[in-house]
From TrEMBL:
Compositionally skewed regions (Basic and acidic residues) per UniProt: 30-39
Protein name as it appears in the record: non-specific serine/threonine protein kinase
EC assignment: 2.7.11.1
Cellular component aspect of the GO annotation: plasma membrane
Catalytic activity: L-seryl-[protein] + ATP = O-phospho-L-seryl-[protein] + ADP + H(+); L-threonyl-[protein] + ATP = O-phospho-L-threonyl-[protein] + ADP + H(+)
UniProt record similarity statement: Belongs to the protein kinase superfamily. Ser/Thr protein kinase family.
Gene3D superfamilies, alphabetized: Phosphorylase Kinase, domain 1, Tetratricopeptide repeat domain, Transferase(Phosphotransferase) domain 1
Length: 496
């Protein structure tokens, strides 16, 4: 079901009295995972009226969408604000999902009973007419995928990677005690960070994701072997998926389990490790986490450990339990002031100077995606890599030479070939569409660029430019304001 929230911190208000950081939230001791079961100011589960959720999301406005894939996701997630200014995430299922309203409410109510401070707790649902909606706590600090694969200032610290592994094991173990031992599609998009920077596991993954009660995995590249054989997820499948998250944490990449196991069997563990973490961990600790991943990824379900084993294995690897997560991650606890002046790129978009925008995009190149390039390196294993490189080269040449029609053709071909989308490609194609007078297509691509890099000022500025071309001046100004806010945030983080 993809990522839950992508446009995050600029919508969150630290003055929100209804969801303050919990000063009593314990830093759990090794194995003492049931201390966190208390309801930490989470409202009781309830059924909401459709009108209430429409109002909370401004009529399910596209501006409130926070799904990684935007409105292209089969089940779209919106940011919402309920009474007392409580920020929530509202998941709207497709019309074909859950035809039986009573079954949906019963399933949601069952998940809503599961409470833990390592979960993004479910606080409500709605089933009116064809609408099926879930309401959950709002997480303001992005997903594990964003922090691991798309960082721009610093790589995700080793100690936080260990903390993610431990906290998610706590969440899974608690779900088992609540007889919720199947978690659907466990991956890096399902791990979100709260206002304190603590990792939490989305409760949405506890819901059955189908019309007929079967369980489905959408992370098909790294699907548990038994799912490929039977089409069903079993409790041991969750452990396999946990193993793929360990690979993400160890390598900083989406790495196929088969390749990782080859490296492990060949004792080439250093080739598996994220090179940006050099000096941050002890070899013994890394080896233990690699060995745990290997156990989780066994092809036979019966050979994998259980959640309690995960807790026992990961707990001793935590070495900085007294340091708050937001400190380890370098997350600011204050708000970002919007600057009064636009950057050169923002100014060019505001005055709709397409030539200036083209010049700035050319000079910027692909530098804003440097944090994501590691993720693309594994494409070198495919036979398509040379064709992809040639297509990108021809597209870049056409873009440089202002042959925008050809640039659109090459970049469109490249997008269809790439398993990992490129924000810069979408940005360049967006400008090419604008140069061809196709503002609606340009807006779509600028939004896709934002999906790739949720806080990228360029994506917001290009959306502002496209919206201006479409005569939507108020929305365009809002996008300019968002772009300047993120630019200020980036500059402030550099100064710190």
């Amino acid at each position: 079901m993809g990522c839950l929230y992508s446009k995050t911190t600029h919508h969150h208000s630290p003055d929100d009295a209804s969801s303050p950081p919990d000063p009593a939230k314990p830093e759990l001791a090794n194995g003492d995972h049931h201390q966190g079961e208390q309801d930490h100011q989470v409202p009781a589960f309830k059924e909401y009226g459709l009108n209430e959720l429409q109002k909370a999301t401004n009529g399910f406005s596209s501006d409130y969408i926070v799904s990684e894939s935007g409105d292209k996701a089969p089940n779209v997630v919106y940011r919402g604000k309920l009474d007392k200014n409580r920020l929530v995430a509202v998941k709207r299922f497709s019309k074909q999902s859950w035809p039986d309203a009573q079954q949906f409410v019963m399933e949601a109510a069952g998940v809503g009973k599961v409470r833990h401070n390592r979960l993004v707790n479910l606080i409500g649902c709605c089933a009116e007419g064809d609408e099926r909606l879930l309401v959950a706590e709002y997480m303001p600090n992005d997903t594990l995928s964003k922090h691991l694969f798309h960082w721009d200032k610093q790589p995700f610290p080793w100690e936080m990677r260990v903390r993610v592994a431990y906290y998610i094991a706590q969440a899974l173990d608690h779900c088992n005690t609540e007889n919720r031992n199947i978690y659907h599609d466990l991956n890096a998009y399902r791990v979100l960070f709260d206002e304190d920077g603590d990792p939490c596991l989305s409760s949405f993954g506890l819901m059955k994701n189908s019309r007929d009660g079967k369980s489905y995995s959408t992370n098909l590249a790294y699907t548990p072997p038994e799912f490929l054989r039977t089409g069903r997820v079993i409790p041991e499948s969750v452990i396999y998926s946990y193993g793929t998250i360990l690979l993400d944490l160890l390598s900083g990449k989406h790495i196929p389990p088969s390749h990782a196991l080859d490296l492990i069997r060949g004792k080439n563990i250093l080739l598996l490790m994220d090179s940006s973490l050099e000096g941050q961990y002890g070899n013994d600790d890394a080896t233990k986490l690699v060995e745990l991943a290997s156990k989780c990824l066994q092809s036979e379900a019966r050979d994998r450990p259980n959640a309690k084993f995960l807790l026992t294995a990961v707990a001793p690897l935590q070495k900085q339990k007294e340091v708050a997560s937001h400190v380890l991650m370098g997350l600011p606890k204050d708000t970002v002031e919007t600057p009064t002046t636009l950057s050169p790129f923002g100014k060019a978009c505001a005055r709709m100077d397409l030539t200036a925008v083209h010049d700035i995009l050319l000079k910027a190149g692909y530098k804003d995606e440097e944090g994501a390039e590691n993720e693309l390196s594994f494409q070198e294993w495919t036979q398509q890599v040379q064709e992809m490189l040639n297509t990108k080269k021809f597209g870049d040449i056409a873009f440089r030479d202002k042959d925008f029609k050809s640039a659109i053709e090459y970049y469109s071909k490249l997008v269809s070939m790439m398993s990992v989308p490129s924000a810069t490609i979408f940005a360049r194609r967006a400008l090419s569409y604008l140069m061809n007078g196709q503002a609606e297509l340009a807006l779509r691509d600028a939004m896709q660029a934002q999906v790739c890099i949720p806080e990228w000022p360029t994506a917001f500025y290009l959306q502002a430019l496209a919206l201006s071309k479409l005569g939507m001046e108020t929305d365009a100004q809002d996008m300019l304001n968002d772009g300047t806010a993120f630019e200020a945030k980036k500059h402030n983080s550099w100064r710190k």
